[in-house]
Amino acid sequence: MPAEHGPLLDAGAGGGWGTRLATRTLPEAHVLALEPSPVLRAVLLSRAAADADCDRVTVGGDDLLSARLPERLGGAPLANLIGHFSPEERDRLRGLLAARLAPGAFAMVNLAEPVEPALVERTRMTDLRIGLRTYTGWAEASPAGPDRITWRMTYEVHEGERLIGRDEVAYTWWTLTGDGLRSEAGRHGLAVAPHGPADAGLFLVGPDVGA
Length: 211
Ligand SMILES: C[S@@+](CC[C@H](N)C(=O)[O-])C[C@H]1O[C@@H](n2cnc3c(N)ncnc32)[C@H](O)[C@@H]1O
Fold this sequence. Notes:
alpha/beta, Rossmann fold, S-adenosyl-L-methionine-dependent methyltransferases, four-stranded mixed β-sheet, Methyltransferase domain-containing protein, SAM-dependent_MTases_sf
């Protein structure tokens, strides 16, 4: 990303792994990392505070669509984010990017499976032992409409055989195919180019991507 033309917008930065990767990869880049979840934002801020490269990171808690953004962006890593936005919100997002991306700049978007509504059987997504405790995460999804699914996540903490805690979270995820992304982006004069290995579902979106 041409970070010399403006800050990078890492929206939905989560716990900040991608933010840290951006600052390490682009030593001149300034990054605006937005994360509305207070819990994840605390992890993000503490990760930034512990990393010398991250003195170029500004952390904010705004929702991307209502945040006060820089007038010019050198790029926008939007990792694992797009499914949080409805078709109408995606339209606003593309308008916002089209107005701000500097020449040569682009957003990076990934389309996570399933890209169309489908049942996803319960799958263990993480299993980590720290000290005496094991932290396990499960994910499953079911169709919730013609263009959306509901993800259900279960997080458990065990110490030996004993269950210490369990949290369950359900949220809507809007599905989008590569063709859908191309046609929506085209309406704002943005081009789309696949990037990296096909199974990553990764796309660059920008005014002169692929030109
Ligand atoms: C699946 S996580 C991805 C985190 C990180 N980018 C990564 O790839 O590891 C999606 C993140 O987007 C955030 N998010 C959801 N809606 C958002 C919005 N409207 N504006 C900004 N961030 C949002 C969530 O709080 C969550 O941390």
